[in-house]
Amino acid sequence: MNMCGIVGYVGSKGAKTVVFEGLKTLEYRGYDSAGIAVNNSKITVVKDVGFVEKLEPHLSQLPASGNAIGHTRWATHGVPNQVNAHPHTDMKVNVVAVHNGIIENFMLLKQNLKDGGVEFKSDTDTEVIPQLLSIELNEAEPFTAFKKVIEKLEGSYAILVMIKGDHRIFFARNHSPLVIGKGEDGRGENLIASDVVAFLKHTKQAIFVKDGDVGYIDGKNIHIEVDNQKVGREITEIEWSAKDAMKDGYPHFMLKEIYEQPDAVKNTLLDARIDEFAHKLDDGLEIVAAGTSYHAGLAFQYASNMKCRLIISSEFSALYRGGSVLAISQSGETADTLQAVRAAEKRGEKIYSIVNVNGSTLTRISDQVVHTHAGPEIGVAATKTFTTQLAVLYAVDAALKGNPKPTFDLAPAIALDGDMKALAKELTKTSELFYIGRGPSAATAREGALKLKELAYLHAEAYEGGELKHGPLALIEDGVPIIAICPNDTHKKKMMGNIEEVKARGAKVFVFGEQGDKELEHLSDKFYGLPKIKEEYSPMTYVIPLQLLAYHTAVLLGKNPDKPRNLAKSVTVE
Ligand code: M6R
After folding, report:
1. Catalytic residue among 4, 24, 110, 182
2. I need a labelling partner for 133 at 20 to 30 A (CA). Which of 48, 455, 456, 476 fits?
């Protein structure tokens, strides 16, 4: 369950509500099931299958005061049902735990516990934690017992634990994100969660927990140890506001995030460190990224003169030939990307990264980082983080070529919203379609198709226009929709040829091109115009109507675009 969200709260604001609200902001991490436990004179647990909202009717069963921990789950070990939902307790309900990660040696630990007479309720790896702790508590005081349990665990984890009669929340981290929110002085509160967005409403002072840290929080103290020695950790002031993590009147986070792109890109380009960053990158660079971030890398390859190679993170070990690495990642927690970076780091190579989430693992293992200033992206689909990644990459390219930093006007692309809603209606009648583009627009096509697949669950394939004739053309028949990305660039003439090819086989062609392009308009079943843009930068504006198209198609098909099935925002499993 490496993509789950966890929250803990110690304080007097009403722990169950603080944790419930925090879990709602973390739902992008997983949404199979959720649960909350409150610890006052005894431990009380509520859980349910489905979205975090499903917990609301159960909250009245929890005491009004006490400490609380909560969890929203993305199932790995054990199907998503109520029993497997977190929090998990020991047999006597003296210990309760939530966990994000995978305990790799849980089978052995579970068998040993069972042999000793311990009965398990769930199929999860997590349940071994409270069960083990319950036994250790017979021998040692709570924190020592907790540390003994952590020593027995192999795998990845961010763990929160409460013990009956103890006023602390214990925590440990190894390869799963965890961050402490330092409560405002005098309020007697502290928070801890998988992501800062869970506590922004209460504090902006964050302490990023590191791998190997164990500790506890209570109303007054934040105690962290490494190898049984108390350590201090710096406090980071988070720039994001609580409002950034709210829908702010929009029906979905995704739509809000699409509309935030003009500001997000502008803010990102204001970062004065991009120039210095660009000049550190040397030829022979291996660029590594996954999903949408990979598409940003692809767009950069079309723009740049650098001798660099782009590798999908999960293929890195098979393809890496050495040299410094540029990792691109929204979350900075994607396991595939982190394992690639760690492999390069082990060889002593330099690591550069472009990351949205401040304090994430990738930022800590990189030699140099540039942040995309997109603010929190809550929708599972990457939108504003894609265009801000492009902004950094295009600014890097400009710096290396000695050109001025580019600027972008994204408003006309967003103004196509109404047209995309109308086009979405057409797409709801189909089950498969194709996105085509050449040059930089091949990257745009891939990103457009990915958005439609993940949100509307329609089978959308992307091809370079010239590739169709090498196979996929066989799939084109009467009425198959084609989304053709065809800016007025050096590839336009050939793209027009590709459009003719699919039209001749009966395809219905929706073309995105430069405003006022009459010949393209004539060729299209429907034409959508965008302002003139430099050839290498076209993905920046052309992707936006495709994001809107995927959004509206999903909504019309009754899917929740913020929480597509089977997916999670940070993919922390390999
Ligand atoms: O956080 P990252 O950028 O490393 O995530 C990589 C992919 O999982 C991510 O881009 C994914 O493809 C998008 N959420 C799709 O919209």
Report:
1. 4
2. 48
The SS3 of residue 394 is: helix
Residues 380, 419: one domain? no
Give the nearest ligand 1 atom to 386 CA.
10
Q: Which of 330, 353, 457, 567 to mutate to test the pocket of ligand 1 (most atoms within 8 A of CB)?
A: 330
Three-class DSSP labels, 14-43: CHHHHHHHHHHHCHHHCCCEEEEEEECCCE
Pocket of ligand 1 (CB under 6 A): 290-293, 329-331, 334, 337, 380-382, 454, 570-571
**The two structure tokens encoding residue 367:** 């030699």
Task: Please state the atom number of ligand 1 nearest to the C-alpha of residue 571.
Answer: 8
Q: 291 C-alpha to center of ligand 1: Å?
A: 5
Q: For residues 185 and 320, state if they share a domain.
A: no
Q: Label residue 340 exposed, middle or buried (CB < 10 Å: 0-12, 13-18, 19+).
A: buried
Share of the chain above pLDDT 90, in %: 88
**Model confidence pLDDT, tens digit, residues 357-370:** 988 889 999 999 99
pTM of the model: 0.86
Which residue in 201, 451, 492, 569 is the catalytic one? 569
Residue 569 is among the residues annotated as catalytic for this protein? yes
Helix (H, G, I), strand (E, B) or coil at 5: strand
Instruction: Name the residue range of residue 332's domain.
Output: 247-408
**Which SS3 state, helix, strand or coil, does residue 193 take?**
strand
Question: Considering 217, 242, 267, which residue would you say is the last residue of a domain?
Answer: 242
Cβ proximity of 44 and 63 under 8 Å: yes
Of the ranges 230-244, 476-490, 542-556, which one carries the lowest mean pLDDT score?
Answer: 230-244
- Mark whether 330 and 285 lie in a shared domain: yes
pLDDT of the residue at 28: 75
Cα(96) to centroid of ligand 1, in Å? Answer: 32
Q: Is 486 assigned a catalytic role?
A: no
Residue that is last in its domain, among 191, 214, 242: 242
Q: How far apart are CA 217 and CA 337, in angstroms?
A: 31
Could you read off the pLDDT of 286-343 as tens digits, one per residue? 999 999 999 999 999 999 999 999 999 999 999 999 999 999 999 999 999 999 999 9
pLDDT of residue 401: 96
